[in-house]
Amino acid sequence: MPTEVIMPKVDMDMETGTVAVWHLEEGANVEKGDALFDIETDKATMEVEAPASGSLHFIVAQKDDVIPIGGNVAWIFSKDEKVVAPAGAKSAPKSENADSAVAESNTNSVAPSEQSASAPTSAPQNNSRIRATPLAKRIARLKGIDLGLVNGSGPRGRIVKADVNIYLSSVPVISEVSKPVQSSSTVNAKSTADKLGISYSEIPVDRMRATIASRLTESKSTVPHFYLDIDCNIDALLKFRTQINVALEAAGSKKLSINDMLIRASALSLAAVPQANASWAGDRILQYDDANISVAVAIEGGLITPVVKQAQLKNMQAISAEVFDLAGRARSGKLSQSEYQGGSFSISNLGMFGVKSFNAIINPPESMILAVGKATRQFVPDENGAPIVATILSVTLSCDHRVVDGALGAKWLQHFQNLLENPILLTLDPA
Amino acid sequence: MTKEKKANVPFAISNYSPEQLREALRKMILIRRFEEGAEDCYTRGLIHGTMHLSIGQEASAVGSCMALKPDDQITSTHRGHGHCVAKGAEASRMFAEFFGKETGYCKGRGGSMHIADVEMGNLGANGIVAGGIPIAVGAALTSKRLKLGKVVLCFFGDGANNEGAFHESLNMASIWNLPVVFICENNKYGMSTSIERSTAVKNISDRASAYSMPGVTVDGNDLSAISEAVTIAVERARAGDGPSLVESLTYRWRGHSKSDRNKYRTKEEISDWMDKDPILRLSAVLQEHSIITAKEIEAIETSVDKEIADAIKFAQESPSPSMNDVTRDVYTELTS
Amino acid sequence: MNEMTKTNTAEIFKDGDMVEMSYAEAIRDALDIALTNDERVILMGEDIGVYGGAFQVTGDLVHKHGEDRVIDTPISELGGAGVAVGAAATGLRPIFEFQFSDFAMLAMEQICNQAAKMRYMLGGNVSVPVVMRFPAGSGTGAAAQHSQSLEAWLAHVPGLKVIQPATPYDAKGMLLAALEDPDPVMIFEHKILYKSKGMVPKGHYTVPIGKAEIRREGTDVTIVATSIMVHKSLDAAKQLEEVGISAEVIDLKTIRPIDRETVLASVRKTSRLVCVYEAVKTLGIGAEISAMVAESDAFDYLDAPILRLGGADTPIPYNPDLEKAAVPQIDDIVVGVTQLVKGER
I need a surface site. Which of A426, B265, C81, C333 has the fewest CB within 10 A? Predict the structure, then answer.
């Protein structure tokens, strides 16, 4: 019995994958674990490994084909196996879009009963077909849910409305907008421009842009945001950093950035105010054990947020090294999905662009994001009211009011400010 | 009441006015030319479907309907063009129906096989052999029940005399004593099967005795003979004495329908019957009794030719039905 | 039989205006009113005169209205039906009774080729306001040729209207509505219902053709039932309630034209559809209802497969246990609906 190679689900909100490149050709010998092909998901490019050893045949998904998750891509035949078309291998999904690819794979799943006797009698499990009632599908469509993530309680795994509702109440992401590129504002922009004769050029939206549009539209329209500003005097922090970097430089080590210190301060603040390290989950709040800090990294065509996991347990040097590695790989598209998922808090820093302060959009399911502006030299009153020059860093904390109330957010910011203004505390372990 | 029959003077001559007789001849010529015109249009591809021509049977239709009052009703058959004209329909609206036009008698929904002029008392040709017989009995029941004084003339062919509906209907008409006259136009063939091969009795009129009603067989190509027999039957019905069966022996010159290849009958037989052309026979009788001249007949023919040409033109120029109306008249649209 | 609550009946009657009648008595009452009010009305059928009809529906009407208006026909279903069609086309209001609906097969020509099509074929120049009554259904031990439910046959023919009243109230009101209808109306009456009783208004009233009625409201499943199956479904719904399943029961009443909106709205509400009918399941009214839902926007509200509970693909057997086994029973409905709602189908 040949082994089916499918489009694997490698991303939580992935519905389809695009074959980026094949590493092997039709008929090639493969060993289990060999890299078969790369797929391009919303966020990254990933390698898919051979699920079995043998020879590769019936490659139905070619480069740039969009395949629904679980959809058939190719087959691997073991050495002593006769190479005959398995059920589902005949009609290659050549379609450009996912919908028709789903339709094709549905057709395929019916095919085995119509196969000739020479075909394998027990066709490999075809995972491309998701059984769901029309109502379950409708709700999933409206809520932007991937039914592949929902467990079906009905006969043969059929997903019914109740299953979708259970899923909805168990996950924090409630997406109301699955295709923001189709949103009315886009349509209006085009029709208005066309009507007024405004010239423009159209730039196609790639998956990353679509994902950014989708997630942030969803966030801004479903998460009740509020914003807290605070100014931090970072003269002490800068001095502290200089001292550390002198030592690091002497040892030939990589120097710390202010950002590395902000991540450390955020992690310790989250550890100190754990109620703020949480997610809204519909009918409950999930309070996380670890401070997993998402760091927004601008890359070509958009941004990505690799996560520094358990940041509260890592010192500034470890954080610095990790961020350096993650950011580098983010820019080359080599992050694995586990590296940019699972954050509990985000930092976005636009200070290097001269931005004084800004309000950031929360990255669901997280409940807070810290927007960091440019540190500026300002006159501030000293204890006697006389003006002195200080380096002031303005930060703005965006909070999900369902999880974080004003006082809680303020408490977190106070803690954060205290750490920056008394940087020696950054060297302590969390309480 | 029928006038007393004079020796050697045909019934029609003694019972109808010269105007009525000339009109009868004109209608027979109109039927002939109408069907020839329809056949021509069909051959040219202007009319689709099929049609069943009654060329050669004109006296049977006109002679029967002569016995009726305008309010009386008829039911007809798939070979019903002649009945329709004889009962007073206009050639133009009949052609419009054949052309499938909104101005046709059935608004283009019925065609040749369901031609009907309900206003003139024609309840419709019928695509089902014997389909119209129970309906005629029902119409007669209405007339009797509501005391309308109408007589219903029920045309059918020899093929229908072996349908159950024929027997059930004659029986009911008889037990309920209804004002209906059954006219069997026996043109010798039910499609291809001859009456000898299909029917146990020698004369279809013999069937009447089984239902206790008068039965008579007449020369259906003789206008006078058929009108005499039907007149007697209609008067009996109108007087409340019940139904009758009249068998009208006639012949269709053309095949059963447009797809008939005439394999079941000989050219000689067809030729013999063409010699008994009912139109020529009536023309001769009318001329013999100085009711019409050859010149006047020519004038009728010229005027009928023009009527047919105008009718075809009217049909061609009439509007086609809207495709949006395909389901109109399946049910009555209730206006509130 | 169940007590039925009326939810959307056109007229509301005070208690004093209502009287308890059997289904057969309600029909007879309607026939009596029609014969009294309208000279054009006649009854035709086999043994409907002094015998009173095979199921005693016409009863003693012949004595009140005379043999000219309550007409015993010979055993001539084709001819008799055709006479009724011809009489309807020319001004009478005949009500034709087939002794058993099975015998109507002899008259299919007149029903389907003539009555149904005459108006259309003649370009709308004729109406055929004939009413035909078809005693139908199994449960009498009369076996294969006297027990069929053939309503879907006729409902397949454009030009006919086909109704199946389930209660004495509707049997009378819909018959009187049929008489006012300008088109042919075929009334299928389940023979087992003839003796069922219910409150019926005195005098003339009509219940609209083409309008279904929600006999019982529910939230978990929509049961669309016809004729006697309305009662069986209501009994089943009571049992289902005890196990926490809330079934909505729709009495379809008219199978042509179908009341789409009542059915679709209910399916949108409950997300589950069960069709219950006595006629052979295959190619029946349940298929039509199912397809109607599947083709509509209500499809997107289905949270379970559609279930049809219809008669077995067999002639109705003689043996009483087999006869019961051949058509849906209350237990079948309870089991089927339970499995559907519990997600076992």
Answer: B265
